[in-house]
């Protein structure tokens, strides 16, 4: 799935809402969760243009740390 086709969904919102509840309870709202997801998506998109080397480093770290999908 290309980044342009990603759609924020209820599971993502719930996950971020849980994170916010633990880290910033005063701002733990569905609206803030959606705003944070949109912000993070924009930041990753910007990295592809402004700092692809950092994005590549993040990807390499991800590959080393990710758990098998099975």
Polypeptide structure, described:
By secondary structure, this protein is mostly helical. The protein has a domain at 41-65. 70% of the residues lie in helices and 0% in strands. The chain has three helices and no strands. The longest helix is centred in the middle third of the chain and has 21 residues, at 30-50. The radius of gyration is 14 Å and the shape is globular. It starts with 9 loop residues before the first helix and ends in a 5-residue tail after the last helix. The mean pLDDT is 91.
| Dominant shape | globular
Please count the helical segments.
Answer: 3
**Relative strand content:** under 5%
- Number of separate strands: 0
Order of H and E elements: HHH
Helix content: over 70%
Uncertain parts:
none
Helix/strand/pairing class, anyone? mainly alpha
Average of pLDDT: 91
Q: What about the largest sheet?
A: none
The oligomerization state is single chain
CA gyration radius, whole angstroms: 14 Å
Distance between the first and last residues' Cα: 20 Å
Describe the structure in brief.
By secondary structure, this protein is mainly α.
Primary descriptors:
70 residues, mainly alpha, 3 helices, 70% helix, 0% strand, globular
């Amino acid at each position: 799935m290309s980044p342009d086709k990603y759609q924020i969904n209820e599971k993502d919102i719930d996950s971020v809402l849980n994170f916010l509840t633990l880290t910033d309870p005063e701002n733990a709202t569905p609206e803030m969760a959606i705003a944070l997801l949109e912000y993070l998506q924009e930041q990753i998109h910007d990295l592809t243009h402004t700092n692809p080397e950092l994005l590549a480093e993040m990807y390499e770290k991800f590959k080393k740390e990710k758990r098998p999908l099975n």
